[in-house]
Amino acid sequence: MSKGYITEIFNSLQGEGPYVGRRHIFIRFAGCSLPCFYCDSPYAKDPRPKFCNIFGDTSLFKRMVNPVSANVTIDCIKELHTPDLHSICYTGGEPLSSAAFVKEIAAEAKSMQLNNFLETSGNSAKSFASVADYFDYASIDIKLRNHLAVEKEDYDKLYGNELECIKISVNRGIETIVKVIVLRNTPVGEIEGICKDLSDFDIKFVLQPVTAHPPLQSADIVPDVKELFELSATVGLYLQHVMVIPQVHKFMGIH
Fold first, then answer.
1. 12 CB-side CA count, 13 A
2. N or C: which end of the chain has fewer CB within 10 A?
3. CA distance 45 to 198
4. Domain range for residue 178?
């Protein structure tokens, strides 16, 4: 089996989206090319970390030298498995940067009758298409212009890939979640334009207010409740399933 770079593997509660509170085993793949300024896991941007850390509940109990094999990753999943497990969550970093490695692990997990859940920025529709058949759930981010994820001239290309990932996901019968991080003064018109583009798709749409921590609080970028109500109502004009959900694991103080 192939090898790849993983930042960490851990068992915890899902902290984002409609499955918040459900038990997952998270595989955080190393490396991400998008420099979103609000990133809450910048340590995962390193594409070749020396070690992969393994956490059970809240404590570190194993450290492995990277790169690790798909076989070893599956062994970790077996060790971390609990009876209340919802899914194996492939996150990052950006898991699509390791698409072939992700596919190998996901295929083996499916053979074990486990659900697979992909969290991605949607920056590569080609890579997404190559792994989609092995996933039951896909949470695809849409980056806004003020996220500074790419240079201005590259934004339309990124957005096009995100939309194509969503289309592929829905067409292949994956339960599809679209997540947008919202800041203070997020333009209502920008959210409305996105929802118009998504109005033909059966998706769950999550507005996720950026979570405050010291570097962000000083910048005063956290949206207030009035803004969130307005944005939610706007989404509801075009999509049936709209939710406003913060990063709950931050409030719980868990990994």
1. 23
2. N
3. 29
4. 3-252
- The SS3 assignment for 67 reads coil
For residue 243, give every residue at least 6 positions away whose Cβ sits within 8 Å of its Cβ, in sequence order, or none. Answer: 17, 18, 204, 205, 206, 207
How far is 215 from 163, CA to CA, in rounded Å?
A: 31
Give helix 225-236 / helix 188-198 axis angle, nearest 10°.
Answer: 30
Count the neighbouring beta carbons within 10 Å of the beta carbon of residue 207: 23
CB 222 within 8 A of CB 210: yes
DSSP letter string, 85-134: EEEEEEESS-GGGGHHHHHHHHHHHHHTT--EEEEE----HHHHHHHGGG
How sure is the predictor about 42, in pLDDT bands with cuts at 50, 70 and 90?
confident
- Give the count of domains, the chain: 1
Which tens digits make up the pLDDT trace of 89-110?
Answer: 999 999 999 999 999 999 999 9
Question: Which stretches within the chain are classed as H helix?
Answer: 70-80, 99-111, 125-131, 155-171, 188-198, 214-217, 225-236, 248-252
Reported as a single tens digit per residue, the pLDDT across 131-145 is: 999 999 999 999 999
Euclidean distance between CA atoms 254 and 28, whole angstroms: 15
CA distance 144 to 121: 11
If you search the block for the tokens 């190559």, which residue do you land on?
130
Name the token pair of 231: 């944005």
CATH number for position 243: 3.20.20.70
Tokens 């406003």 locate to 244
